[in-house]
Amino acid sequence: MKHILTLALCLAATPVLANRVFVSNEKGNDVTVLDSETLEVIGTYPVGNRPRGITISPDGKELYVCASDDDLVRVFDPETMQELHTLPSGPDPELFVLHPSGNPLYIANEDDNLVTVVDTETHQVLAEIPVGVEPEGMGISPDGKVVINTSETTNMAHFIDSETFEIFANVLVDSRPRFAEYNHDGSKLYVSAEIGGTVSVIDPQAQEIVHKINFEIPGVLPEAIQPVGVRVTSDGKKVFVALGPSNRVAVIDGETDEVLDYLLVGQRVWQMAFTPDEKYLFTTNGNSNDVSVIDVEATEVVKSVPVGQQPWGVVVAPE
Amino acid sequence: MFKGIIVLLAGIWLIASPAPAQERPEPTVIGAAVLRVDRPGLPPISRLELPAEDLGFAGARLAIEDNDTTGRFMGQDFEAEEVVATPETAVEELERLIGEGVAFIVVLADDETMLALADQAGDRAMLFNAAARGDNLRGVDCRANTIHVAPSHAMLADGLAQFLMWKNWPRWFLIEGSHPEDAAFAAALKRSAVKFGARIVEERVYEDTGGARRTDSGHVQVQRQMPVFTQRAPGHDVVVAADEADVFAAYLPYQTWDPRPVTGSAGLVPRTWHPAMEAWGATQFQNRFEELANRPMREEDYQTWLALRMIGEAATRSQSADPEVLKEFMLSENFEVAGFKGQKLTMRDWDHQLRQPILLTTGLLLASVSPQEQYLHRISQLDTLGIDRPETECEFREPT
């Protein structure tokens, strides 16, 4: 009987679910849930210690949170925010990427120079892949064949075969690579370098850097321009880069790699997520404890919403 | 005997370092050494500051681990021989290392020994100064074969001065010790006061007359002596202590005649590293170090780590193991290294000093980081700390 009730709740909840925005608060040990239309806070829920990376299954039924200090990935029902189960993650999970099919999950273990691969159905560890020092950024090609890991002290993007779990190429990028993101047709891979202050545009076929994007903001010290999160619109035309303590998000032409604009957001902006219709882009601002909402079409910041302590990651539920 | 054990341990550890994941061609070895020159002396005032036996070496081990992890992908293997010497045996040990063909030597020594070793090495090795802070080593006594990873007195003093000016605490009561290194730090503080517009209202010298430190009832004496020593100073905002010899400064906080904060060698202390630093990804760096060394990281460890990371970074970027190529690259304006300080660290070509932010720390925490954002510079904000190009007294001559 209880099962039927839960099922009924889930079914009824589906349209609402599509509009939920989940923000992990690193110091608050919780997740703030927002409504992507009203931009109101729905609630705040405890999720374990030092939550950082956050993602959601393609069917929207499982929310994954890297609980870094618990050395676990915690899995929640996105509707009730009740914990469903945990996944073994290896020590200090920071960021992860889900295979486009929803399984497996590829997790960067920052303290242990490993990428751990976990089956989201059987909850078993499939592989541990030795990578460079301080693995962080995780990306996956749109066809799911290539996983990218960036290592912050080794300064490389490691190309990993998603089935054999072998590294088949390494591309040296600028200092402290934080994030890796493919465009939707898989023709470009963007890797941000926090200390280097650049985004490398890599040809994934040749595994070569074809262009380096530099940033310059009048009145902002170059040292403060620290690229972290990268998101690309599905048509590949606009690339958004979070620039950390410069409190800006850069807007880049996805075809020419030229910087078009800088949008002023909250303090120390790191990660970003689109709504499924790409109407809005949400940014986590770790030092001002808020989320900025960017209107993607107009490339304008339309609102900032206070969330928890030191917001780190953000994901929006799928349609 | 002690040295023998350390070298042996280093050997074991090298063998135990992680093997390449896949079969690859024989890696190229890039060798270095860490030469720590221990001067016999009294233990520190606080027993919390007792130096660990692996001081500096633990930082080296972490750097080699980090370099080797990257080296796996580059076909490079890094090594660092660990050597303990005394001021008397330092030159002999240096000669032995050079004789073994070691091209990069990280030195943890006092100013005088550092300079003597640089002169001894000449053009046969590149030295990395990971401890000595003397401004003369970057000025009149600069040597082309030395890279200064340790900050200078001037950088530390400027980092502190910027913060004190930001606080609007411009009136300083300067107390310096009676040792030459205390006078050197005091000179840097006086220079900083002029540079940033502070005023030294009075200078006093605290004579080191020896005596029983840390005896059973030492605090009773301290509680009587420190207020008396600091009384009748003109109006001041802060006490600034220059006590590199660690004789008195640690006793000053809460014991001064006037209720004023203590800064400099105690209280608010400028440093390169602090084990409570968590910003800029430092948490994971601290975790990795503590797992390896079973103790918190000290400045000597950080500076040694950074020196060896510079070699690793140069080898990765230049894809070379040739010491000449690495040396040239490290000294070029294209060289940059990340050191968990929120920005790239680069080299000053006029005195071979590594640019770096200075942490201002209290006992348990980081209070601030200099440069303070209000202090601007047309080249690099980091050049507001220490001796800038127009002021340098360094003229590199060919090593003799």
UniProtKB/TrEMBL annotation, chain A:
<dbReference type="Pfam" id="PF10282">
    <property type="entry name" value="Lactonase"/>
</dbReference>
<protein>
    <recommendedName>
        <fullName>YVTN family beta-propeller repeat protein</fullName>
    </recommendedName>
</protein>
<keyword id="KW-0732">Signal</keyword>
<dbReference type="InterPro" id="IPR015943">
    <property type="entry name" value="WD40/YVTN_repeat-like_dom_sf"/>
</dbReference>
<dbReference type="InterPro" id="IPR011045">
    <property type="entry name" value="N2O_reductase_N"/>
</dbReference>
<dbReference type="InterPro" id="IPR022456">
    <property type="entry name" value="PQQ_b_propeller"/>
</dbReference>
<dbReference type="InterPro" id="IPR001680">
    <property type="entry name" value="WD40_rpt"/>
</dbReference>
<feature type="signal peptide">
    <location>
        <begin position="1"/>
        <end position="18"/>
    </location>
</feature>
<dbReference type="InterPro" id="IPR019405">
    <property type="entry name" value="Lactonase_7-beta_prop"/>
</dbReference>
<dbReference type="InterPro" id="IPR011964">
    <property type="entry name" value="YVTN_b-propeller_repeat"/>
</dbReference>
<dbReference type="InterPro" id="IPR051200">
    <property type="entry name" value="Host-pathogen_enzymatic-act"/>
</dbReference>
Automatic annotation (TrEMBL), chain B:
<comment type="similarity">
    <text>Belongs to the leucine-binding protein family.</text>
</comment>
<dbReference type="GO" id="GO:0006865">
    <property type="term" value="P:amino acid transport"/>
</dbReference>
<feature type="signal peptide">
    <location>
        <begin position="1"/>
        <end position="21"/>
    </location>
</feature>
<dbReference type="Pfam" id="PF13458">
    <property type="entry name" value="Peripla_BP_6"/>
</dbReference>
<feature type="domain" description="Leucine-binding protein">
    <location>
        <begin position="58"/>
        <end position="207"/>
    </location>
</feature>
<dbReference type="InterPro" id="IPR028081">
    <property type="entry name" value="Leu-bd"/>
</dbReference>
<keyword id="KW-0029">Amino-acid transport</keyword>
<keyword id="KW-0732">Signal</keyword>
<dbReference type="InterPro" id="IPR028082">
    <property type="entry name" value="Peripla_BP_I"/>
</dbReference>
<dbReference type="InterPro" id="IPR022478">
    <property type="entry name" value="ABC_transptr_sub-bd_PQQ"/>
</dbReference>
<protein>
    <submittedName>
        <fullName>Branched-chain amino acid ABC transporter substrate-binding protein</fullName>
    </submittedName>
</protein>
<dbReference type="InterPro" id="IPR051010">
    <property type="entry name" value="BCAA_transport"/>
</dbReference>
<keyword id="KW-0813">Transport</keyword>
